[in-house]
Design a protein that fits this description.
By secondary structure, the protein is α/β, with parallel strands linked by helices. The protein contains 11 helices and 10 strands.
Length: 317
């Protein structure tokens, strides 16, 4: 009896049919879901304060470029003989324009001008650093713009006149022709001596294969034919190579011979390497401090966390 009584008394304290289904239906409040927000705000504020102590900055690179520019005058022969077809895929002038254009595009910080000549010479483009304009003028160069002939001396004089008053450290002329001087009031060697007295260097380029090439002309009745002499023999281009060499020697330049487009391109590339502009570049940075913006954000988050902690998420001991 005593054992049964004690056992019965102990069972009264137990829950015979436990059921927590009702408790599971109780959803946590929004405040309970956001109970970690105060901690997150404080952690973010501390992280921003640490970032502000690191002094974040934004900067931009400033470049000072000091150049010792070269002034270059390009003299291009546009006489009828430049129609000779020994420079593929078209003719001598077509190939020369392509190579000269590549040369212009490779230059930096130089002033470049251009003189074209045949029976007389004139400035197609004065010295400029706007290579786009210069290339546009070059594109418009064609045979027939000037009365026929070869005025090498006048072309060189025109170039020298364009360079004589400029203040560049280095002044050069690149003269390209395939003929002999047969027009103009000033002979090539006199023009070269004038250039030499002014410190102007001349690079001369003779264009054409050894022995010359036939000269195509447009006949109003027969179309394209090749020039012939009074005796009916085919006329070939002729070049005064000795005069071109002497011009280069007098002025301290060099003479080159181009027999096709590839060799002409290599000549201009060689001149490009010989006459490079020296560029001095100084770099420095300008900084703007950003820590104050980060610090303001940190203080805002810290203040917000304190307000929430003492109002919405206040706990009662």
């Amino acid at each position: 009896m005593v054992f049964w009584y004690r056992n019965k008394k102990r069972k009264k304290a137990s829950l015979r049919f436990s059921d927590i289904h009702v408790l599971k239906q109780i959803r946590p409040s929004r405040s309970l879901k956001a109970r970690h927000l105060v901690f997150i705000l404080k952690a973010a504020a501390i992280a921003l304060i640490i970032l502000a102590l690191a002094r974040p900055q934004s900067g931009k690179r400033i470049r000072d470029i000091n150049t010792h520019g070269i002034d270059i005058m390009l003299a291009v022969d546009v006489s009828g003989s430049m129609q000779a077809e020994d420079f593929k895929p078209n003719n001598r002038l077509y190939a020369a324009k392509q190579v000269v254009a590549d040369f212009i595009k490779e230059r930096q910080s130089d002033q470049i001008g251009m003189v074209i000549f045949a029976g007389r010479a004139f400035t197609q483009c004065p010295l400029t650093s706007d290579y786009g304009i210069l290339l546009s003028f070059l594109e418009n160069v064609q045979i027939g713009m000037v009365e026929d002939g070869t005025a090498i001396g006048m072309a060189l004089t025109n170039c020298v006149n364009r360079l004589k008053d400029v203040k560049a450290k280095s002044r050069i002329v690149i003269l390209l022709t395939d003929g002999q001087n047969n027009r103009g009031e000033i002979d090539p060697l006199t023009a070269a001596r004038i250039g030499q007295s002014l410190g102007i260097k001349v690079y001369t380029i003779g264009v054409g294969k050894e022995g010359g090439a036939p000269i195509p002309i447009n006949d109003p009745f027969f179309g394209k034919v090749y020039a012939r002499g009074p005796d009916g023999r085919l006329l070939l281009t002729q070049m005064d190579e000795e005069t071109l060499k002497e011009i280069a020697r007098i002025t301290g330049g060099q003479y080159f011979r181009a027999v096709d487009k590839d060799s002409l391109q290599k000549i201009y590339q060689q001149i490009d390497k010989l006459e490079k502009t020296k560029i001095e570049i100084k770099q420095y940075m300008e900084y703007t401090e950003l820590f104050q913006y980060v610090l303001v954000m940190a203080l805002f988050l810290l203040t917000l966390s304190i307000l929430l902690e003492n109002t919405r998420f206040r706990t009662i001991p």
